[in-house]
Design goal:
The complex is a heterodimer.
Chain A lengths: L1 H34 L3 H28 L11 E6 L6 E5 L9 E4 L6 E9 L3 H4 L1
Antiparallel strand pairs in A: 1-2, 1-4, 3-4
Helix pairs in contact in A: 1-2
Chain B lengths: L2 H10 L2 H58 L7 H9 L14 H23 L5 H34 L2 H30 L7 H10 L4 E5 L2 E8 L2 E8 L9 H11 L4 E9 L9 E5 L8 H12 L4 E8 L1 H5 L4 H21 L5 E6 L9
Parallel strand pairs in B: 3-7, 4-6, 4-7
Antiparallel strand pairs in B: 1-2, 2-3, 5-6
The chains are: A alpha+beta, B alpha/beta.
Chain lengths: 130, 372
């Protein structure tokens, strides 16, 4: 399926690129015609050029947007928040395997009592930022 | 002939020739839209479905790989892949609903068999793994099964639509795709949390209960479920939650039935995560009445039945979050919601019960990464 999809994408992309080129050429002709006094012809060319440009850019943007650009894997950091229930000292560090909320973590640097893990949370992911 | 003369030639021809060209293009487009318009529309829709399907397939393959990577730490057997594939295709047949009487008991029975069988299979694959880790792997495989099922169903409609070229079939598949993708992405987000044993948003109810029972003596009350008795401003609070920190939801329905059978209870307070609507904030707390518990409905049925039988009021407190938040590692906003929920519960107890009363507090949800 992916190979077939790429060929289809390439065909649509090339067709739309050709249409954009034609539309720009038509707009160029419209400007020339207007400057030489052919107002009616200039109107026809500008209409054709604009229509072509709108249609091609719209189709192209739809085709490009359809392709999955967003990664499906969340990329975030997980932090562990610990507090010493004896002296109140608190600390936040990266999550380590085996950590769990209300479990014991590292020893308090002030009173050497094992600190309690009060929260394990994730920071904002890249996808959410987007 | 230079470009200037070509331009002059084009421009010197009157509007008639140009008009003819435009008319020809218009007729050609008109005929194209009559004969091929619908086919072109179908082609575009099929392409949209195909792109979505490829994303779901990638998510499913990633989930399978994550399960394999995790289990390879405990078992390097060459037959591991086929064993995992067999588990991923595991299904259960819901009982007949032609005669709905007693259907909840039948569902409960079948789900218990499924759970036991599943655990047995996992134990045979990884015999040395501890119970807590085993529950996490079990949850991970459940995610794999869900993603596999989503992929198979969507692929079925895609291929059927392609085969029959039925506009309505393809239209339905395309219309459903954004919602299905959202669900699949939420499941994918859960893989990291379940592989490493981090708490997920769904565990908010368990965390509230754990905060109430912290430091008290815990006793098992039903399978994978614990309870503790704590005192709160002269009331006796019986707190129930699933056994953590492994990925468990426990059997709160059975636990509540047992406690109600054992003595007079003034009220039942249930805390759970609830799906937020678009526009609502993560961690928002709401209050109401009823059994705040999701799932198939077995535990909800048991709690409602027991509450009705003993005429005990059921109060519910929910913390709002999206599907993705519920299945991925807990956000800080949810911890803020936990604090708010605790304050609401304390206020509710003061308002609705008297000193000397006994009440039940049930923390509902998956307790992965949350102890007690």
């Amino acid at each position: 399926m992916p190979a077939k999809n790429s060929i289809g994408f390439l065909i649509v992309f090339l067709l739309m690129a050709a249409l954009i080129t034609c539309s720009i050429f038509f707009l160029f002709l419209a400007v020339k015609a207007y400057s030489q006094g052919f107002e009616e012809t200039a109107l026809y060319y500008s209409m054709a050029g604009l229509m072509g440009l709108i249609m091609s850019t719209y189709t192209l943007s739809r085709v490009i947007r359809r392709r999955p650009l967003i990664s499906t894997t969340l990329n975030y950091e997980v932090q562990t928040f610990l507090r010493c229930l004896k002296c109140g000292f608190s600390n936040t560090r990266g999550f380590a395997n085996g950590d769990y909320v209300l479990g014991f973590g590292d020893k308090c640097p002030h009173c050497s009592t094992p600190m309690v893990i009060l929260a394990i949370y994730r920071t904002t992911s890249k996808r959410e930022k987007r | 002939m230079n470009s200037e003369s070509v331009l002059q030639q084009i421009l010197s021809s009157e509007g008639d020739r140009l008009g003819f060209i435009f008319q020809a293009i218009f007729i050609a487009l008109f005929l194209f839209s009559i004969f091929y318009g619908q086919k072109f529309q179908i082609w575009m829709m099929l392409k949209n479905v195909e792109v979505g399907l490829n994303r779901i397939k990638r998510m499913r393959d990633n989930a399978r790989q994550a399960i394999l990577d995790l289990l390879r730490r405990f078992n390097n057997d060459p037959g591991l892949e086929s064993a995992i594939d067999r588990l991923l295709e595991y299904f259960w047949i819901p009982p007949t609903s032609i005669d709905p009487f007693g259907i909840v008991g039948k569902i409960d029975h079948l789900l218990n068999i499924r759970e036991r069988r599943f655990r047995w299979e996992l134990k045979s694959i990884a015999p040395n793994v501890d119970d807590s880790r085993l529950r996490n792997i079990e949850n991970l495989i459940e995610i794999g099964i869900s993603l596999d099922q989503i992929y198979r169903v969507m692929r079925h409609y895609y291929l059927l639509g392609k085969k029959t070229m039925s506009l309505f079939l393809i239209y339905q598949a395309e219309a459903l795709m954004p919602t299905v993708l959202q669900e699949a992405e939420a499941l994918t987000d859960a893989i990291k949390a379940f592989s490493t044993g981090q708490p997920i948003g769904d565990g908010v109810g368990s965390l509230v209960a754990a905060r109430f029972m912290y430091g008290a003596e815990k006793k098992p009350i039903s399978e994978d479920t614990v309870m503790a008795e704590v005192e709160f401003e002269g009331r006796k609070l019986i707190v129930v939650k699933a056994l953590g920190p492994g990925g468990n939801v426990g059997k709160p329905g059975e636990a509540v039935e047992k406690i109600l059978d054992g003595g007079r209870i003034a009220a039942i307070v249930m805390v759970d995560a609830a799906l937020k609507l678009e526009g609502e904030e993560v961690g928002e707390v709401a209050e109401g009445v009823g059994a705040a518990i999701g799932g198939i409905g077995v535990d909800k049925f048991k709690i409602e039945e027991a509450a009705k039988k003993f005429n005990v009021p059921l109060y519910a407190i929910v913390v709002k979050e999206s599907m993705s938040d519920a299945l991925s590692t807990m956000k800080w906003d949810i911890y803020v919601g936990v604090e708010k929920a605790i304050n609401r519960i304390k206020r509710l107890i003061r308002e609705k019960t008297n000193v000397g009363d006994t009440l039940i507090l049930v923390g509902v949800g998956n307790t992965i990464g949350i102890g007690q």
